[in-house]
Amino acid sequence: MYTYIVIMTDFSELFLKRRTIRKYSAEIVDETTLNELLTAGCRASTTGNMQVYSIIITRDAEKKRELAPLHFNQKMVTEAPVVLTFCADFNRFSRWCRLRKAEPGYDNFLSFMTAAIDALLVAQTLCIAAEAKGMGICYLGTTIYTADKITEVLDLPAGVVPVTTVTLGWPAEQPGQPDRLPLEAVVHNETYHDYSDEDLNSLYRDKEERKDSAEFVRENNKETLAQVFTDIRYKKADNIHFSSILLQVLHDQGFMKNK
Amino acid sequence: MYTYIVIMTDFSELFLKRRTIRKYSAEIVDETTLNELLTAGCRASTTGNMQVYSIIITRDAEKKRELAPLHFNQKMVTEAPVVLTFCADFNRFSRWCRLRKAEPGYDNFLSFMTAAIDALLVAQTLCIAAEAKGMGICYLGTTIYTADKITEVLDLPAGVVPVTTVTLGWPAEQPGQPDRLPLEAVVHNETYHDYSDEDLNSLYRDKEERKDSAEFVRENNKETLAQVFTDIRYKKADNIHFSSILLQVLHDQGFMKNK
Q: How confident is the model at residue A258 (pLDDT cuts 50, 70, 90)?
């Protein structure tokens, strides 16, 4: 008697066991693998099938060194074999329109958001495709903080704005999985149900009682975990500063002409 | 007795064969399945593990009817068993900060973008997890066009802005897969290489020569495919109109206080 067991439809491990990878092995990401991931990424949904995004691949060591300070010298930028910058891009589409006797009207904030959404869906699809191959990724939120300088380093023309960056490679670490809030903290049925103080106490209890949270608070000489965020990691003054840079980039790259 | 266990590790079909699904069977999406998908979605990368997003589930027929015109009466809104609105949300996080003697500084454009990115990574992860189960999804780009009215219908408080909507269910169609531009159209090595007219002619040739493109141009009484986009589908006047609504929503929801 022969029993064949084929397991192939349960992808839940792929989603549930993932974690961000910040240390990569020396193994390169070959052209074929990278192209497979890019092809998978480009199958993501895109507004009106316009594909209003571009992906800039950084593999050159010198270019990584130029990008590194723009990502606050997070070491993944120079250590990962591949760095991918995902951009909202209405330049290509608008140029094609003009070449075809069509007058593009995409120099506005709505079009920036449409293109940013496109770019982010491609980014996340590529990341999941990479993780399905056993690779590791890390998102760099710093992209929108220093979009002005990234635009210069990557030679982005008007109509193109960097939205996020992903470092990619083969994992050389297996870090613990970070916590998440319980599902009921982020999910609302039919309408948004705003939180009472009791709700917040209950929803954040597990996070606050974690050993690593307590250490985080102590290391930073703070009284509460929330203060580590507001006073150290994501400060109001920094947010205001980077907001004004980012809005200026949208102006400079031609997305606020009509608003 | 012999047991063969085959574990499929090649997920490429999942990514490469996907297509948007706009017709759904009458089968419900049960609570367990939906919770699995939401849990998978929430494992997506999130800035500083802040999880600055919320997901509003619409299953109620009356609520779907209220949302439908805000999505230009696309029939998926009323026909899909589940409609999910993904929101940038700094309300919950800021309220938690205040409850913990921490002063939040997230009433600015940078924080909106941070939260929008968070929301979109969750959305796309949930969508791929759904497709891995054989389900079908459709993105509704209209969410950012009518964010003012969606905010009302879903009772979103200050600090919360809808960013995208996904309809979800079990497929009742298998439509053809739409074309994509060749990879070299959207990928740049090291720096952005702007397009010559010849590049654009070559990169858009296949798309323009497709039978469905030609029909699209004829049906719309236009001369070129690009004109269908600029004159009919994504018009300048509409973009400007919806831009100003969306920027007003960011003001009204408190994301432009400091910029």
A: low
* CA A197 to the chain's CA centroid: 31
CA distance B114 to chain A (A): 7
Q: Is B58 on the interface with A (CB under 8 A)?
A: yes
Q: What pLDDT band is residue A94 in, cutting at 50, 70 and 90?
A: very high
In A136-165, the residues whose Cβ lies within 8 Å of chain B are: 137-139, 141, 144-145, 154-157, 160, 163-164
B71/A218 Cα distance (integer angstroms): 48
* CB < 8 Å to A128, chain B: 15, 124-125, 128
All structural domains of chain A, each given as residue ranges with its CATH number in brackets, are 12-176+243-252 (3.40.109.10), 183-233 (no CATH)
Strand order in the sheet with A187-189: A187-189, B53-58, B82-89, B160-169, B136-140
ipTM more than 0.90?
Answer: yes
Collapse the DSSP code of A257 into the 3-class scheme (helix H, G, I; strand E, B; otherwise coil) and give the result.
coil
Q: In this structure, which amino acid lies at residue B177?
A: Q
* Burial classification of residue A193, based on how many CB atoms lie within 10 Å of its CB (0-12 exposed, 13-18 middle, 19 or more buried): middle
CB atoms within 10 A of CB A110: 26
Q: pLDDT tens digits for B41-94?
A: 999 999 999 999 999 999 999 999 999 999 999 999 999 999 999 999 999 999
What spatial distance separates the first Cα and last Cα of chain B, rounded to whole Å?
Answer: 70
What are B151-201's pLDDT values in tens digits? 999 999 999 999 999 999 999 999 999 999 999 999 999 999 999 999 999
Query: Quick one: DSSP state of residue A144?
Result: G
What CA–CA distance (Å, rounded) separates B205 from B217?
A: 15
Residue B211: phi, psi to the nearest 5? -60, -40
d(C-alpha B121, C-alpha B125), whole Å: 6
